Fold this protein.
Amino acid sequence: TDVLNELQNKFVQRKNQHPENPALFGVGKDKNLIVIQVEALQGFVINKKVNGSEITPNLNKLIKESIYFDNYYCETGLGGTSDAELLANTSLFPIKDGSAYMRYSGNDFVSLPKTMKANNYDTMVMHAFKPGFWNRSVMYPQLGFNEFINKADYEHDEIIGMGVSDKSFFRQSLERMKEKEKPFYSFMITLSSHFPYDNDKKFYSEFDVGEYKNTFFGNYLEAIHYTDEAIGYFINELEKNDMLDDTVLAIYGDHYAISKDKKDVLAKFLEIDNMNDFNWVKLQKVPMLIRLPEGKGAKVNHIASGGVDFMPTILNIMGIESKDIPMLGNDLLNSKEGIAIMRNGYFIDNEYLSLTADGVAFDIDTGKEYPIDNLKHKIEEVKKRLYYSDIIIENDIMARIKDYLKENVINN
Ligand code: GP9
Ligand code: MN
């Protein structure tokens, strides 16, 4: 069909633009890949204090030895956590309505785990919750994970909120990873900092959020502080076991923590006088960091980006050729321009923030309104990108496009 042709041409074009010698290609070659998707880790907590204390001291420290993307936005839709997983592991966008994990779990995705597997990696996913939630028990094998270590596999020695505490989760998961042959890709999804954050605090260490104590917002800060501590523990353990520098470690937040009905308390906390839509959307960032062995290449990278960019970026780092994979994101270490695309068509690049459906756009630095008509071209491009993703998912043609790309190069 016409759309299929257009799609194939687009990807062939993209293949032809692939840089000859991409920066940082293969810096993580044959290393283990550990990816931690952190529940409700929202950007504003990074390098921020409450009542005189850092909220996420361990992540703040880790950022200094990592490539830290500070303009990485949440691109999830109605599929919440599962959309974040999909974005990272397929470089496709969430679907318009519902969750791809529920509705398209039979698709033949060209995924990160499958690609790692084709490069001699063992693959596993770890999440200490009911395996059927978000249809994971069906979706994970389909995505190419060899093993799903779930609620039934963990000892329930310490319970916080929805299940096994993050600290216990990391401890038990590491035990399993130690037994694995190198190299492996391990995808870990945390749980303790899940909404509504009103956990029993008996396993938390002391963290005084001052005036926010026993409020929704204060509970979130305490929960995410706890998870940060669990991450700090995990990194220490990796180091103790001589695994840290044998690993490419990526950590990112799955989606926002504070819903819009609570915007006033966030505005107060961040001292934002006017919490308008511009400021609100700009707060929908999730932290993303990639620690390379020995902390190589550490720096802050400001490129506008989001979950869909994860897979192309990480494949380049792992030294895995990805020219033939129809991904919708950018390799963030080899792109001049980036963009974050929200499922409703809002987008943010390094110059503008466009609330497309509302007919307004803003200068990203000043927050001044910018004539949206000047962004027509970009708006079209964004629409197309989401549309292509929908077409690929609805027609289950990712593998087919990959085969097509293998055979097609136009020299331009
Ligand atoms: C539970 C967890 C929750 O398994 O991942 O998902 P969410 O409610 O955040 O989409
Ligand atoms: Mn979540």
